[in-house]
Amino acid sequence: METATALAATKNTFDIAAIRKDFPILTREVKGYPLVYFDNAATTQKPQVVIDTLVHYYSHYNANVHRGIHSLAEEATAAFEATRDTVRAFINAASREEILYTKGTTEGINLVAYTWGRAHLKENDEVIVSGMEHHSNIVPWQIVCEEKKAKLRVIPVNDKGELLMEEFEKLLSDRTRLVAVNQVSNAMGTINPIKDIIKLAHDRGALVLVDGAQSTLHLDIDVQEMDCDFFVFSSHKVFGPTGMGILYGKKHLLNEMPVFNGGGEMIKEVTFEKTTYNELPYKFEAGTPNIADAIALKPALDYIEKLGKENIRQHEDRLLEHGTRKLREIEGLRIIGDNDHKVSVISFVIEGVHPQDIGILLDNKGIAVRTGHHCVEPLMTRFCIPGTIRASFAVYNTLEEIDIMAEALIRAVKILR
Amino acid sequence: MTITPTIEQTEAEIIEEFSLFDSWDDKYEYIIDLGKKLAPLPEEFKKDENKVKGCQSTVWLVANYVNGKVVYRAESDAIIVKGLISMLIRVLSGHTPDEILQAKMDFINKIGMTSHLAQTRSNGLLAMVKQMKNYALAFKAMDN
Question: Does the annotation count A384 as an active-site position?
Fold first, then answer.
């Protein structure tokens, strides 16, 4: 099942050509051109080993987990639970009980909002989010705040697309119960000073939920060192399958939280008078889980570990540096979130042309970028723009692909103006 | 006085024009050119009630009923969408509500727009057609 991995490369010279071979989709053509995939912040492509794992599961040991006595069920359960150990190590959680399977980042945030939020928020309590949050880290808090008559406060963003930390300090008060922020902005790539945020929040007795959807692939994640209370991310943004995600929570918090969904798997004993709930993490995993995709998250994380996060980061930084330089050469182009602490995402607008037109013309050259508000409408309003063009790079992208995009951009602008 | 071609005739004309292009580059350049040539909509019409939902870009659509014919005017902040609207106006504007309501608008499919434009965008195009037909329906109801 092992595919030709890029590990033929030595640690220092990173063999991108070999890495690209691990991702079968990268050989396809779009509109008659080789695919240039720059929409990695939306979802990453999958290495062959992840695809093979899915096929292997369904072809060889498809069974329901945790219940059956038969061999297939045992194999499926072992593989399903192996992912939990891998995830624990990947984000350095203290124990496997702290790793809950979800459908994705959005469900993880909703789970905390509906269980912890409903149990703990009271009238006039405050939840703080940032001005660069994805809608999925705004709307669940709005819903629970409205229900509990609590208030939602927002950390403002400066012109460079960074959080105003002094304003954050002013927002913190004895009424603050929870701070929910992303570690990396999906729209701009800004890396937020998450450890400072957590320290300041904890000093005021507030909990912190970190949205790691955009950071987990790019940064070293150590939830114990970070000291966050909750951490959420999605499998599909770290080379894994869609429909699978992780919610990490500190054990004592998860233990005292009320359950989310009721059903099978999450119970210990059921009578019509009273039901007792299962132990962590199963207390929060009602019903038959997403077995195949959970199993296939493991090879995705293993793949990242084999490449080495430091190596990945170095290559991505090269892409970011080259991309930023090439794009700055284009007349009238303005980078949104132009700061020094970024992952490999470049969000930009071009004077006199609409992002959608650029997106269509780039697609016509086989180049996939994201255009629009990126589910961050408040941030777009902050910058007075309808949306941006976002090129987000992953480890399998090349400097040559960036040159192709830059040329296509110049041509598109010429036609459009 | 010139005779207004039927909706089907205009659709056929557009299909014919598009058949001359070898590449999508040329098709897009043509659509962009149509967008640039579309008469701008006066600012007073660019208000929320004239907005058509369904696209990443904003579209404003206005309709007038003149001597039993529907006359459309529209604009968008994105130029390719503007070019597409320009084609819709060319096909539907100046016809009776009944003619507009019966129009199949096959040309969108036949010039390859549905397959070439991503779903979100052609949804925008379909949302626009729907809105144009809604106006026709409203004018027809007024007559009755």
Answer: no
Kindly report, residue by residue over A207-250, the tens digit of the pLDDT: 999 999 999 999 999 999 999 999 999 999 999 999 999 999 99
Instruction: Name which of A31, A415, A416 is nearest B24 (Cβ-Cβ).
Output: A31
C-alpha angle B85-A387-B55 in degrees, rounded to nearest 5? 30
Active-site residues of B: which are they?
Answer: 55
Please tell me the pTM assigned to this model. 0.92
B52 pLDDT higher than 90: no
The residue with tokens 């695809």 is A51
Nearest by CB to B78, from A31, A357, A415: name it.
Answer: A357
pLDDT tens for B112-135 read 877 656 555 555 778 888 899 999
Strand A36-37 to strand A367-368: parallel, antiparallel, or no bridges (unpaired)?
Answer: parallel
Where is A370: in which H helix or E strand?
strand A370-372
Is there a contact between B28 and A360 if contact means CB atoms under 8 Å apart?
yes
- Going by the DSSP 8-state scheme, the letter that residue A192 receives in this structure is P
| Phi and psi at residue A305, to the nearest 5° | -65, -40
CA gap B64, B75 in Å, rounded: 15
**Is residue A315 very low, low, confident or very high in pLDDT (cuts 50, 70, 90)?**
very high
Look up residue A71 and give its two tokens: 């061999």
Is B121 in contact with A364 (Cβ distance < 8 A)? no
User: How large is the average pLDDT for residues A93-105?
Assistant: 97
In angstroms, what separates the C-alpha of B111 from chain A's closest C-alpha? 15
Q: How high is the pLDDT of residue A261?
A: 86
Which chain B residues are Cβ-neighbours of A389 within 8 angstroms?
none
Sign of CA dihedral A275, A94, A185, A50: negative
Yes or no, beta carbons of B29 and A415 under 8 Å apart = yes
Could you give phi then psi for residue A156, rounded to 5 degrees? -75, 165
- Chain A contact set for B29 (CB, 8 A): 415
What ipTM describes this predicted complex? Answer: 0.89
The whole-angstrom separation of Cα A285 and Cα A262 is 9
DSSP of B15-56: HHHHHT-SSHHHHHHHHHHHHHHSPPPPGGG-SGGGEE-SSS
Question: In A, what residues contact B, Cβ < 8 A?
Answer: 31, 353-357, 359-361, 363-364, 371-372, 386-387, 415-416
CA A268, A269, A270, A274 dihedral sign is negative
Instruction: Give the position of tokens 């019903």.
Output: A287
Torsion of CA A193, A199, A203, A209, to 10 degrees: 80
**Nearest-CA neighbor of A289 among A44, A84, A69?**
A84
Cross-chain residue pair B28–A361, CB shorter than 8 Å: yes
Contact between B81 and A356 using a beta-carbon 8 Å cutoff: yes
The rounded distance, in Å, linking the Cα atoms of A77 and A195 is 36
